[in-house]
């Protein structure tokens, strides 16, 4: 399987230099990451929302090694929120954050990440929107869930992400569904050991359906993070069985992947949110997109060959 190999490469400085230097890389990266600055991304936000879509915005970057870098990540999100306030789009545009960007892996990282993310959540609430905490590798999740719980005491709309391939996730889903939180379910995009995660696609898909049923039957707001047509159909059926209206759950897909499907679901009345990343530190995000879906890797390789 190529996925684990690509994920290993995502942490290789040598591979980062090689891929970043390839002339074609920027053209391919632009498919997934449509800008580097807030000024770049505002027209994208306006275009997608005009098409009836909703967005969750991600300022890319994870390799934080100093408290100063973590503070800069916080400030980047605050600058984004400042611009979003002027657009007056409310919850149609939310934010997704990785706590590693806010210093989670540093000394006293749990407290530092909470201190940095709190003003972002506060600022988002002030303009009528919210923040979702992205899931990272399994070693970070206890801290992420604790921060999520702390933030929801004041901002109950704060969301979080759970990953179907982890064995722990069914129990996490039951707790979160009972608490009525906003939960995005994804398959998972980190290299995890067999001791904590399913390794085969078939098992991951089965786990995804089991967990999605828990969320749909629960008291929370499910966010279906998948491009898989079969899982999208299953999600619609589970929502129908649970008696959910179209505004009581949503679909989420990545910018640049299955864009026609984004529009189709929105046209049918579904809430369809596009995960849209921007920024200069794109490498880790880009490599996970290649690892998640073989078609993404084929697209990249074909582009390198045709442009080489």
Question: What value does the average pLDDT take?
Answer: 89
* Radius of gyration, CA atoms, in whole angstroms: 18 Å
Share of residues in strands: 5-15%
Which geometry do the CA atoms define?
globular
Describe the structure.
With 308 residues, the chain is of the alpha/beta class. It contains 13 helices and eight strands. The protein has helices spanning 2-9, 13-21, 25-32, 38-50, 67-87, 109-126, 141-152, 169-179, 201-217, 229-241, 259-267, 283-292, 294-307, and strands at residues 54-59, 93-97, 131-133, 159-163, 182-186, 221-225, 250-254, 272-278. An eight-stranded parallel barrel has the order 1-2-3-4-5-6-7-8, surrounded by seven helices. Strand 1 (54-59), helix 5 (67-87) and strand 2 form a beta-alpha-beta unit. Helix 9 packs parallel to helix 10 (229-241). The model is unreliable at 303-308 (pLDDT under 50).
Q: What characteristics describe this protein?
A:
single chain, 308 residues, alpha/beta, 8-stranded parallel β-barrel, 13 helices, 53% helix, 13% strand, globular
Summarize it.
The chain is α/β, with parallel strands linked by helices. Helix content is 53%, strand content 13%. Strands 1-2-3-4-5-6-7-8 form an eight-stranded parallel beta barrel, surrounded by seven helices.
């Amino acid at each position: 399987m190529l996925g684990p190999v690509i994920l290993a490469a995502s942490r290789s400085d040598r591979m980062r230099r090689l891929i970043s230097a390839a002339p074609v890389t920027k053209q391919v990266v632009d498919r997934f990451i449509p800008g580097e600055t807030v000024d770049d991304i505002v027209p994208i936000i306006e275009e997608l929302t005009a098409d009836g879509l909703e967005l969750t915005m991600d300022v890319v970057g994870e390799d934080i090694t100093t408290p100063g870098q973590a503070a800069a990540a916080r400030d980047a999100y605050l600058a984004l929120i400042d611009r979003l306030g002027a657009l007056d789009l409310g919850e149609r545009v939310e934010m997704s954050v990785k706590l590693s960007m806010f210093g989670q892996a540093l000394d006293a990282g749990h407290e530092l990440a909470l201190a940095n993310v709190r003003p972002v959540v506060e600022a988002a609430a002030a303009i009528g929107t919210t923040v979702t905490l992205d899931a990272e590798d399994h070693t970070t999740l206890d801290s992420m869930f604790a921060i999520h719980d702390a933030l929801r005491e004041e901002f109950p709309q704060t969301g979080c992400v759970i990953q179907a391939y982890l064995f722990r996730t069914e129990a996490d889903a039951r707790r979160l569904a009972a608490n009525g939180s906003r939960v995005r379910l994804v398959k998972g995009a980190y290299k995890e050991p067999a001791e904590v995660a399913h390794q085969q696609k078939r098992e991951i898909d089965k786990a995804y359906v089991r967990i999605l049923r828990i969320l749909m039957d629960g008291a929370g707001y499910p966010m279906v993070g998948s491009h898989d047509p079969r899982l999208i159909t299953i999600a619609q059926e589970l929502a129908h069985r649970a008696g959910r209206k179209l505004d009581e759950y949503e679909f989420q897909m990545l910018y640049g992947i299955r864009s026609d499907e984004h529009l189709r679901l929105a046209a049918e009345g579904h809430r369809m949110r596009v995960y849209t990343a921007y920024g200069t530190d794109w490498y880790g995000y880009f490599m996970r997109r290649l690892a998640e879906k073989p078609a993404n890797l084929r697209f990249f390789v074909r582009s390198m060959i045709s442009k080489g």
